[in-house]
Amino acid sequence: MSEALTARDGAVLTITLNRPDVYNAINRAMHDALREALAEAADPEVRAVVITGAGRGFCAGQDLREFQELPGGIRDTLEETYHPNVRAIRALEKPVIAAINGATAGAGLSLACACDVRVASTEASFVPGFIGIGLVPDAGSSWFLHHLLGASRAFEWMVSNRRVSADEALIWGLVSEVVPAERFAKRVEELGEWYAGLPTRAVAMTKRMFEHAYTASLEEQLELEAELQLAATGTEDFGEGVQAFLEKRLPAFRGR
User: Fold this and answer.
1) What are the pLDDT digits (tens) for 76-119?
2) How far is CA 70 from the centre of its chain?
3) What confidence tier does 74 reach under pLDDT thresholds 50, 70, 90?
4) Do the Cβ atoms of 120 and 175 come closer than 8 Å?
5) Which end of the chain has the least Cβ crowding within 10 Å, N or C?
6) Is the pTM of this model over 0.90?
7) Nearest to 190 by CA among 103, 89, 99, 100
8) Is the dihedral of CA 151, 155, 161, 162 positive or negative?
9) Contact (Cβ atoms closer than 8 angstroms) between residue 71 and residue 34
10) Is 80 helix (H, G, I), strand (E, B) or coil?
11) Which domains does the chain show, CATH number per domain?
């Protein structure tokens, strides 16, 4: 059985981290399976991606049993395992939704933060994990959390190693929605379908814009907006959107 399962429903690809007996703790086999799943997600026919966890956890972070034996050391290991998958998520030209169904910690938190949208079950919880074993945030979490929460809150949370509930994560803006556990799977399905129905190329360019804005000057951002707006006006979905507006109907975007 693969450590990361994929299932396609229409234009939505769901990737399920699949080591439920250890709350989907990450080992090298999971890295490899996730890399293959993200490659599948790059298919243009896939217009939205959901990442979730099997069983009661989303992802408990690094499997510490494997962590004790790292050929080449931690720096090389991060570059060979976590970094490619984080980059792959950010490079996907479509929305990526983290469906956080349960406990999330350490590098599992990093993985969730690498996604574009995070929605949580009421059973979800969030623990930094790193400082609790004498480590520092990795797999991009220091970058993502700095931008999601602000430097002060991100620092306080990371060094306190405090467990945060789904409701508190919503107040912070770490997640965009909290859903009762019994309705979570249905709501994730609805969200996946909704995101898949958007004009995918425009969504991808919007994703690129916001990443660029982290370090760009206003002039640089204005230039990128103009460049990408020109590209957007050349898409089939732009034509459909305008026509639907004029005809006073809902647009039927095709992701082209």
Assistant:
1) 888 888 899 999 999 999 999 999 999 999 999 999 999 999 99
2) 26
3) confident
4) yes
5) N
6) yes
7) 99
8) negative
9) no
10) helix
11) 4-196 (3.90.226.10), 200-246 (1.10.12)
| AA letter at 189 | E
Q: Are 251 and 241 in contact (CB under 8 A)?
A: yes
The dihedral through the CA atoms of 75, 76, 81, 84 has a sign that is: positive
CB of 50 within 8 A of CB of 99?
Answer: yes
Q: What is the DSSP string of 137-164?
A: --TTHHHHHHHHH-HHHHHHHHHHT--E
Could you tell me how far CA 250 lies from the centroid of its own chain? Answer: 28
Handedness of CA 124, 132, 32, 90 (dihedral sign): positive
Please report, as a single letter, which amino acid is at residue 99. Answer: A
Beta strands in 111-229 (DSSP E): 117-121, 125-127, 164-165, 177-179
Residues 97 and 111: their CA atoms lie apart, in Å, by 11
The whole-angstrom separation of Cα 197 and Cα 252 is: 8
pLDDT at 72: 63
Which token pair is 41? 């997600």
Gyration radius from the chain CA atoms:
19
